[in-house]
Recover the amino acids of this structure.
């Protein structure tokens, strides 16, 4: 078992309900295949830094889960077949990333961020 | 006699007293989040290119991680691949 994190970018043409439904579909793919979802985060509609398939915005959704490696292939095939998905990115998390995400979830992140910006000002 | 006047072949270096340092090592940051586009902005120029280590002072270990994070952020559309007007 390895911990992963996937960011899915959906086309902005969907209504909020349809987008939520599409995301739920992929969560189901994960849980049905024995993955354990650690965290989900919906970023909502965001502006893209550059147009993708002639679209300038996209629905972002982040899922963090624990699964075995062969499930990733299954999930990515589903994502590639889906026309509503503009982009996706799956990352295997190392121990530092897991620690960082846990910190972020517990709210320590809000204290951490100003430290970073302070550093840049110097 | 002629040695009284010291001449330099190359101009003497004026030392910059501020030493560059790796901010990740200094602050004990071990993971660079590709989802935090605002943070990554500090490591790219206004064309969206990754800044060299000689300008940012980042250690090699973390420079590789910065580059990886920037590439990931570009893929999911958080940072541009090419632009002229970043920042």
């Amino acid at each position: 078992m390895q911990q992963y994190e996937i960011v899915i970018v959906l086309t902005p043409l969907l209504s909020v309900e349809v987008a939520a439904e599409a995301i739920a579909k992929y969560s189901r793919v994960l849980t049905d295949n024995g993955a354990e979802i650690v965290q989900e985060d919906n970023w909502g509609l965001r502006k893209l830094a550059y147009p993708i398939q002639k679209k300038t915005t996209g629905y972002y959704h982040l899922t963090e889960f624990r699964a075995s490696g062969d499930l990733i292939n299954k999930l990515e095939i589903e994502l590639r077949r889906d026309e509503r998905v503009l982009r996706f990115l799956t990352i295997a998390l190392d121990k530092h990333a897991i620690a960082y995400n846990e910190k972020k979830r517990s709210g320590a992140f809000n204290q951490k961020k100003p430290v970073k910006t302070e550093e840049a000002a110097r | 006699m002629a040695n009284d006047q010291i001449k330099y072949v190359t101009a003497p270096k004026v030392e910059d007293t501020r030493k560059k340092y790796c901010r990740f090592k200094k602050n004990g940051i071990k993971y660079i989040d590709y989802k935090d586009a605002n943070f990554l902005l500090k490591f790219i120029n206004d064309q969206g290119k990754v800044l060299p280590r000689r300008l940012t002072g980042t250690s090699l270990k973390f420079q590789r991680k910065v580059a990886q994070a920037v590439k990931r952020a570009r893929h999911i559309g958080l940072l541009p691949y090419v632009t002229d007007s970043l920042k």
Notes: The first helix of chain A runs from residue 16 to 32. Strands of chain A lie at 2-10, 36-52, 55-67, 85-92.
